[in-house]
Inverse folding.
């Protein structure tokens, strides 16, 4: 099996893809990159001509937006309801900002393209959020190092992704917290939250909700979704669900 | 009164379930139902205060004592006044799904209350203790030495990537 790695900029961050190139066109990641480009071109508020920018500037009415954009907005609203408002697709100024969900949707689409081109074992890392399939180059479950928010050159711990647990998303208040708004005056208690789940949208949205909503959101998320969570707060205290502890490898 | 005082320190929802367990004694059932209704409509502290529940007040002076010494429905210990043992309550429907609790009794006093099972609407079994609990940093640091394929962290920008561990990992493999 031959392994390849591709790194490219997209959606304001960097994507790193490691994959086994089983198929003849395995090295061609055009379809994968196109999936990211589509989501970026449609939803980025940094691109003045994106559909979402046109909605934000009132050039386009939401009702006249494409079916896809309206569907994505509806999905984000469902997450807002499910997380009791801890996750929100609205900026404080009222602008619809779907960046909290779009990157995860793009990762799902990219994963579908990787499968289409014949790759069964791959790891997709986009800006620190991770979606995997199969096993790594050592035929072991994919091992994800979790960054220490107090020392970004160090790892806090390791989480292995196996079985149905294919996704790992991390949110933090220290770096690029631009899509996270705390509720009311409640201070953000956690500086970083990592959520392992079966799908990347659930992991990403709930990691965001836990940073925004604090301990209340943490308890609510753990009680209502099948997720494994690791948090670290301002004092450096680490919290872990029993399920997350199962992902941490014991010493050899 | 002692039992209710102990229960008062437990979370509201669990308290209601334990009162439900006490309902093995038929006479206590009405009071338990009254307390349960009260707790869902008001704050947990109100529900665990015997004097605030109209249904509870007439029996609060004598019932707790009698239910403490009555043989529990699933109990295996003796029914003497100084009962000691572990008792598993029957499964009770809650807004969060079926739930069952276990209590540890020592000489007639409840010393521990554990949730045995709680199943949500999706059929997934969870435990109350499934909430994230504090752990020692050394416990996770020990796992660091494992080889990692990729690095997860709070979303970084393209600039942030340059200084990230993922960037170093990518460089090492490209």
């Amino acid at each position: 099996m031959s392994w390849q790695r591709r790194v490219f900029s997209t959606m304001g961050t960097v994507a790193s893809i490691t994959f086994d190139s089983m198929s003849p066109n395995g090295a061609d990641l055009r379809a994968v990159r196109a999936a990211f480009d589509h989501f970026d071109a449609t939803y980025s508020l940094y691109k003045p001509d994106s559909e979402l920018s046109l909605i934000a500037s009132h050039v386009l009415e939401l009702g006249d937006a494409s079916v896809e954009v309206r569907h994505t907005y509806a999905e984000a609203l469902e997450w807002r309801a499910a997380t009791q408002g801890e996750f929100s697709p609205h900026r404080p100024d009222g602008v619809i900002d779907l960046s909290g969900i779009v990157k995860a949707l793009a990762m799902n689409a990219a994963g579908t393209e990787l499968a289409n081109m014949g790759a069964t074992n791959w790891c997709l890392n986009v800006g620190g959020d991770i979606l995997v399939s199969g096993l790594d180059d050592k035929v072991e479950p994919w091992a994800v190092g979790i960054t220490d928010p107090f020392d970004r050159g160090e790892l806090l711990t390791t989480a292995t992704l196996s079985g149905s647990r294919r996704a790992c998303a991390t949110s933090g208040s220290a770096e690029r917290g631009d899509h996270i708004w705390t509720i009311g005056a409640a201070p953000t208690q956690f500086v970083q939250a990592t959520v392992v789940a079966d799908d990347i949208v659930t992991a990403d949205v709930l990691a965001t909700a836990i940073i925004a909503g604090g301990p209340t959101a943490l308890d609510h998320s753990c009680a209502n979704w099948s997720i494994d969570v690791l948090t670290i707060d301002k004092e450096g205290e680490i919290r872990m669900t029993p399920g997350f502890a199962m992902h941490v490898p014991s010493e050899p | 009164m002692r039992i209710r005082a102990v229960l008062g320190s437990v979370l509201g929802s669990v308290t209601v379930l334990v009162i439900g367990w006490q309902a093995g004694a038929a006479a206590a059932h009405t009071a338990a139902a009254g307390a349960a209704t009260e707790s869902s409509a008001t704050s947990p502290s109100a529900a665990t205060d015997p004097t605030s529940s109209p249904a509870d007040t007439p029996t609060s002076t004598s019932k707790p004592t009698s239910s403490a010494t009555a043989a529990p429905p699933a109990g295996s210990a003796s029914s003497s006044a100084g009962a000691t043992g572990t008792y598993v309550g029957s499964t009770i429907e809650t807004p969060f799904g079926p739930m069952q609790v276990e209590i540890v009794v020592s000489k007639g006093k409840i010393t521990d209350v554990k949730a045995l099972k709680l199943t949500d609407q999706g059929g997934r079994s969870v435990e109350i203790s499934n909430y994230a609990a504090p752990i020692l940093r050394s416990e996770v640091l020990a796992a660091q030495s494992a080889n990692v394929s990729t690095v997860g962290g709070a979303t970084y920008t393209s600039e942030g990537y340059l200084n990230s561990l993922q960037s170093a990992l990518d460089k090492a493999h490209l």
